[in-house]
Design a protein that fits this description.
Two copies of one chain form a homodimer. In chain A, the strands form two sheets. In chain A, strands 1-2 form a two-stranded antiparallel ribbon. A two-stranded antiparallel ribbon of chain A has the order 3-4. Chain A has helices at residues 6-18, 24-32, 40-52, 119-123, and strands at residues 56-59, 67-70, 78-81, 87-89, 106-117. In chain A, strand 1 and strand 2 (67-70) form a beta hairpin. Chain A has two domains: 6-70, Orthogonal Bundle (Arc Repressor Mutant, subunit A); 77-123, Dna Ligase, domain 1 (2-Layer Sandwich). Chain A is built from four helices and five strands. Chain A is of the alpha+beta class. Chain A binds chain B through residues 58, 60-63, 66, 77-84, 86, 88, 90, 93, 95, 97, 101-124, and chain B through 58, 60-63, 66, 77-84, 86, 88, 90, 93, 95, 97, 101-124. Chain A binds a DNA duplex through residues 1-8, 24-25, 37-42, 44-46, 48, 65.
DNA sequence: ATCTCTGCAAATGTTTTGCATCAGC
DNA sequence: GCTGATGCAAAACATTTGCAGAGAT
């Protein structure tokens, strides 16, 4: 059975209060100040556990280490600041990219990635 | 001054003939059969050099190691096969995603990423 | 008391770097 | 011959795992 420990509560709290996707080192730093002595291995193990439990969702940006945020936010996309490198959630967006940015945010570029099956694998 | 070596020619050839973005291990395998004894370090060093020279462009998919392709292909997006994991170039695409897929390719999902500056960094 | 969770340290996998040697110019 | 490029091995860096001991139930 799953146990409630100070470390897990700290990690939970950090992710809950951030309201944006965070990287493992970010989570580690923030949670360490709540639960001193916390180890990096525990952060990774807890993230993996929370992913399996469907509590967390991975946010993977091209060319960057994955970040994690609360699951169950519905379909949405993300915005990364080129200065501070933080990642923010966007809502209700489809293709009018600049329309869905929070006020004050400046759009500089976008990437679109498609996934599926190539001809060889689709027919095989 | 830059020198023309068998190793560089091999790596060049491999990337030229592939016509799709390749990962360092893929490049290593393919180039090794042209230039036996080739080392992984040389592959990475040559990739970096070619990036600096503007000969190569990085293709970074979310959650995956970067691939590389010839630079100067103009703005385009990419398609990764969920079966064989190969990445292909797409052309002339904007937002009618399924319209721009090569014949026989099946679209399963897409990701959109926006980049720019958040309010804090834009006004700072 | 049991059995999970934790921290540490060692292992892993990938990319980078140091260095002596090799080869293009 | 000079100087940049190479291969190997070691280093760096991020993530994972083994293990003995701490802590939740």
């Amino acid at each position: 059975m799953e146990r409630t420990t100070a470390q897990r509560k700290a990690i939970h709290t950090v992710l809950e209060e951030a309201g944006r996707p965070m990287s493992p080192p970010e989570i580690f730093e923030a949670a360490r100040s709540i639960a001193p002595g916390l180890g990096m291995a525990t952060v990774y193990r807890t993230i993996k556990r929370m992913l399996d439990d469907g509590v967390l969702a991975a946010v993977e940006l091209p060319g960057e280490a994955p970040r994690y945020e609360r699951a169950g936010l519905g379909h949405h996309h993300h915005f990364r600041c080129n200065d501070c490198n933080k990642v923010f959630d966007l809502t209700g967006c489809a293709s009018a990219f600049d329309k869905c940015l929070p006020k004050g945010f400046a759009l500089e570029s976008h990437e679109i990635f498609l996934f599926g099956r190539c001809e060889t694998c689709a027919t095989g």
